[in-house]
Design a protein that fits this description.
alpha/beta; Rossmann fold; eight-stranded mixed beta sheet; three-stranded antiparallel beta sheet; 9 helices; binds S-adenosylmethionine; binds zinc ion
């Protein structure tokens, strides 16, 4: 079971105090006023994670419940695969939209939720909505937890640090992630690109894990203002890859029906 965060300097357990976390070697990490702790070393902090603009776009979009169907299905799956006292990690939790739902399910069963993200800006928001979740700025590729700490690890649209997830999960632990299906956001792509393409099927094999369930979730969302359309666009990987000229095509668009198609993948650690 997870006893807590580990010190990024010496690897010893960090003991939580009112305003900070401290290890037995006296390395001390202050909590931010919002409540999260920064466990990233200063030279690995620059240029990582989502910036304020992207975070605001995602937060505004998710708050309008456009992806509530995905959150609801995720929560049902967690309900189904969890038992009393489960420990869960949400890796790359962003502003905590899904983390909050995860916490609500697991806290009913005396469970505990930890969440990390490399973006401090994201955790400022997550701290507001997930007050009882233990939050840290940390990288998925160097998780501040000992081996076999968690019963469930979740990573949604965030870096898939397979080896670390394997390490921190208990034997038979559950790993949950999501991928886009074929038609996900096709109409958004069609509004931007001359030759839009469908998503290719992804390889779902994961070394050390057995895929025990895959669940498709789809619907059509009606975006009825330009800000929502642009916010969705900024949440996608296309945002980085699209020319200014193509991005401008969204400027005059005020209504758009968009397909959302996700596949939730549930794995068990072998
Ligand atoms: C697309 S967002 C998804 C956020 C959240 N899981 C959600 O679905 O709303 C990806 C998140 O991964 C974070 N991220 C990027 N690189 C990371 C890393 N190496 N370790 C942890 N988080 C990372 C970003 O800062 C961002 O918050
Ligand atoms: Zn230490």
């Amino acid at each position: 079971m997870v006893k807590g965060f580990l010190c990024p300097v010496c690897g010893e357990l960090l003991i939580e105090e009112e305003k900070s976390y401290k290890c037995e070697n006296n390395h001390c990490f202050d909590k931010a006023k919002q409540g999260y702790v920064n466990l990233l070393s200063s030279n690995s902090q620059k240029g990582h994670g989502d910036n304020k603009l992207m975070i605001n776009a995602r937060r505004e979009f998710l708050q309008k419940r456009y992806y509530a169907h995905l959150k609801n299905k995720l929560c049902k799956i967690i309900e189904q695969y969890s038992s009393n006292g489960f420990f869960c990690l949400d890796s790359g939790c962003g502003e905590g939209y899904y983390t909050k739902g995860i916490y609500e399910i697991l806290s009913e069963k005396d469970g505990k939720v930890y969440a990390i993200d490399v973006s401090k800006e994201a955790l400022k928001f997550a701290s507001r909505s997930c007050t009882n979740v233990k939050l840290a700025v940390a990288s998925a590729y160097k998780l501040p937890f000992s081996d076999e700490s968690f019963d469930i690890v979740i990573s949604l649209f965030a870096p898939l640090a397979k080896e670390e997830f394997y390490r921190v999960l208990k034997k038979d632990g559950i790993f949950i992630t999501a991928i886009p299906d074929e038609n996900h956001l096709y109409s958004l792509k069609a509004a931007i690109y001359d030759t839009p393409y469908k998503n290719k099927p992804e390889n779902t094999e994961l070394c050390g894990f057995e895929l025990i369930k895959s669940e498709k979730i789809s619907n059509i969302i009606q975006l009825d203002c330009n800000a929502d359309i642009k916010n969705l666009f900024m949440m996608t990987p296309y945002y980085y890859k699209t020319s200014q000229a193509d991005q401008k095509k969204l400027d005059d668009l005020n209504r758009l029906s968009v397909e959302t198609e996700f596949i939730l993948l549930i794995y068990r650690k072998k």
